[in-house]
Fold this protein.
Amino acid sequence: MSFDILHSPVAFLKEMLGAVPGESTLKAYEGYWEKEERPISETIDRAGTPWLRMFDPLGERIDTVLFPPEYSKMLHRGYQDGVVWRVFEEKSLLPSYLLGYVTAFNDPGLYCPYTVSLSTAVPLEKYGTEELKARFLPPMLRRDETVWQGATWMTEIKGGSDLGATVETVARLAGDRWLLMGEKYFASNVGAELAVVAARPEGAPRNVRGLALFLLPKHRQDGSLNYLIRRLKDKIGTRSVPTGEVELKESEAYLLGKAEWGIYLILEVLNLSRVANSVGSVALAQRAMADALRFAVGREAFGKPIIEHPLLRKQFEDRMTQLKSAFALAWEAVELLNEVWRQSPPYSERYHLFRLVAHLAKYWTAELAAQTAKWAMEVYGGAGTLMEFGVERWLREAMILAIWEGTPHRQILDGLEVMERKGAHQLLFRHLSAIADPQALQEIAAQVENFLKLPAEEREARAEEIFRSLAYFTAEALRGKTRRNG
């Protein structure tokens, strides 16, 4: 088995997909990273949390996040190459996720601004009024340094799993806009020109049905700051995206879609990000393996390079297989989302199939990323623990992937919900019937059906075991599909 494709995300994509849409753009983007952007990314990571300049010399509040000048060049390259604008020009999500894969191979944290910008532009384009779209969408689709960024702010101090109980931000109607009062505790890409925000209109019930989705500009119509940044967070990784605490004080905002659709629109936003999380997780795992391979080829022990020792070589082979299975699962989520992303409530069966695959992919790939990054450090031995050699970064970056946009518990429980209420497991088994091993398919189907007959509390307590088995089965079946496509 050859491992050479590990060093190139584009080569790996070609191996897995055969024809890669926009291959010339991806190759140029990959080359740009290799020649110019990797040293910038490494410097940003070593520097840690960026600065927040809260006031100008005259004492006016400005809340500006300060990065080195080179950061802006690195950041804007992805926007210029089309991580957002190509989605709307080509009417496909694939270009964004492909560019995201190359980005995450080099800097998983930087993929976050691109992801949340896309997750802002999509609901704006789908659910915004014509006036809102004319005002706010064109700046998000620019192809130069003036492009606007987006952000998705749902989580508050009490956490994000139970949004119905933990979102305390209140929205009050005031003429043609709404005024928001509240705080967002984990505000990624803080400083963005636009954000989509979960809030509860006055008088709405205190559950998920009472939530609505709002578009929040950085500045009010009079030009003043529309939200305040209380502080930036010190994080274990993803230092190339600033995360902060945001204060909303009668902040001007605009309702997206129907208020009663709020939770569905919020989940649409989260699903765009969850799929990106899966893509980024696989890319990180590939990067960790590539760094481990580079070390294993150069490091000699007992008279030969350590890659030639049977145990380590077998580990590389096994992890290459895992990487390909994980990619197949993540990419299936991408392709299914690309089919259904234009849908609005009520959704089709195809959308519910996508939901289950997205939960499986997010759960499975995030765990793979962390375990692969840990193993890469082990290949390096003691040197793997030292920041100066860089491999430990991938473990730090991977730790957020299991948490961002829903912990493993959330993916399991939401996956269980779509199986129980929408029969998504049956949709999945039909979807895989032409490519899966018939006996293995029959066995996993029987396991799932027996599991769903358990009493509710026992079913939840034992959910991870069946969810893990279902994720593994699905990934392995889809790996066979990608082999035939390639």
